[in-house]
């Protein structure tokens, strides 16, 4: 079928809206009419040519919409169902069997290559096959193909156009606190970076009952948002000559937990100065390419002496079929207001959305076909 999609034609090139041909759903696939798709930093990393997906490609991996057609093998959803689309997984490796699909053995192949599991491409543009199936969806478009494993029904009362943000960035931040680190009530937490992931972590920390939630973020509007969502302190690293000392002034023995969403080497290198004994450092931020060889902070001796734990986190350790419905239920209870992070844009204005996100004028852009 012919659809409209935002194509990434080449590395670092602007997105281009164009007509492309999308395959009909195979027996194990679900055709979704996209109502909204979140714009995530991972999309921009892919658009810079820093991921395995070959360009040109249709990106987008936080889609939500209405099921229009299902393959013969699909039983989880039916036409007319409202769904959010998340990352995909194989369903049969040891990690999937233990309900840890974020660590699926085929995570890279299924989500980052732009190919189906069998190596085929689902999109045609200009008479040639181009990459799709990004995170099992490619939702910067009017329609996308997904599978049973990466669609989750959207609860009534949850705004469908923004529900897709739960599928990656929001569940990564909230899940890092609620699932990966499992911060207990009364604990202290430092979050470095106040974007959508970091602010979702703030909301997760409030739900967990953390006593101290400190956010390090240079953007004033995002600091204000962090405080309004429940952070107990927001620090501007540009205004504090020694921001580590500012954290220590409030928490003299250090923080129990630290979550980095920034990927900034100068931040990551300060971790040993911030953690309390037996503290845990969780990281979802990816350092820039020139810092690819950055070692995790602290030597083995330092980690052993203080009992530190360094914890890499993917997708907030989410099992989407259970965690996304949990977040939706919390939203409906008024306890997880992720909608406050969102600014919507027409899909045709995707390049403006990218620019305004990079300028700090919005937190979580959502594109509306």
Automatic annotation (TrEMBL):
Q: Does the keyword Oxidoreductase apply?
A: yes
Keyword rRNA-binding in record = no
Arranged from A to Z, the UniProt key words for this protein are: Metal-binding, Oxidoreductase, Zinc
Gene3D superfamilies linked: Medium-chain alcohol dehydrogenases, catalytic domain, NAD(P)-binding Rossmann-like Domain
Cofactor(s) recorded for this entry are: Zn(2+)
Annotated GO MF terms:
oxidoreductase activity, acting on the CH-OH group of donors, NAD or NADP as acceptor; zinc ion binding
Domain Enoyl reductase (ER) intervals: 10-367
Q: Which family does it belong to?
A: Belongs to the zinc-containing alcohol dehydrogenase family.
Name of the protein in question: NAD(P)-dependent alcohol dehydrogenase
- The species is Comamonas serinivorans
């Amino acid at each position: 079928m012919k659809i409209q999609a935002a194509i990434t034609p080449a590395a670092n090139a602007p997105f281009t809206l164009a007509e492309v041909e999308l395959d009909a759903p195979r027996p194990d696939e679900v055709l979704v009419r996209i109502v909204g798709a979140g714009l995530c930093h991972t999309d921009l990393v892919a658009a810079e040519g820093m991921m395995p997906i070959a360009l040109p490609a249709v990106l987008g991996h936080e889609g939500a919409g209405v099921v229009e057609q299902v393959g013969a093998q699909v039983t989880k959803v039916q036409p007319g169902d409202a769904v959010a689309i998340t990352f995909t997984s194989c369903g049969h490796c040891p990690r999937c069997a233990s309900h840890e699909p974020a660590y699926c053995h085929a995570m890279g192949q299924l989500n980052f290559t732009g190919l189906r599991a069998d190596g085929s491409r689902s999109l045609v543009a200009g008479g040639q096959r181009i990459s799709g199936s990004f995170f099992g969806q490619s939702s910067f478009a009017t329609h996308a193909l997904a599978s049973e494993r990466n669609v989750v029904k959207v609860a009534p009362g949850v705004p469908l156009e923004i529900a897709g943000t739960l599928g990656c960035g929001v569940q990564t931040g909230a899940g890092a606190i609620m699932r990966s680190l499992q911060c207990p009530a009364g604990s202290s937490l430092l979050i470095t970076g106040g974007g959508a992931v970091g602010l979702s972590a703030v909301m997760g920390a409030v739900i967990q009952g953390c006593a101290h939630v400190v956010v390090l973020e240079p953007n004033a509007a995002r600091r204000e948002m962090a405080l309004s969502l429940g952070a107990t302190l927001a620090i501007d690293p540009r205004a504090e000559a020694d921001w580590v000392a500012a954290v220590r002034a409030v928490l003299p023995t250090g923080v129990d937990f630290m979550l980095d969403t920034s990927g900034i080497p100068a931040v990551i290198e300060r971790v040993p100065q911030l953690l309390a004994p037996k503290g845990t450092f969780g990281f979802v931020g990816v350092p820039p390419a020139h810092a690819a060889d950055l070692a995790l902070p602290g030597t083995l001796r330092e980690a052993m002496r203080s009992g530190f734990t360094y914890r890499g986190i993917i997708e907030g350790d989410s099992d989407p079929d259970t965690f996304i419905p949990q977040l939706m239920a919390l939203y409906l209870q008024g306890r997880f207001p992720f909608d406050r992070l969102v600014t919507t844009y027409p899909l045709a204005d995707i390049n403006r959305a990218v620019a305004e996100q990079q300028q700090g004028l919005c937190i979580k852009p959502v594109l509306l076909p």
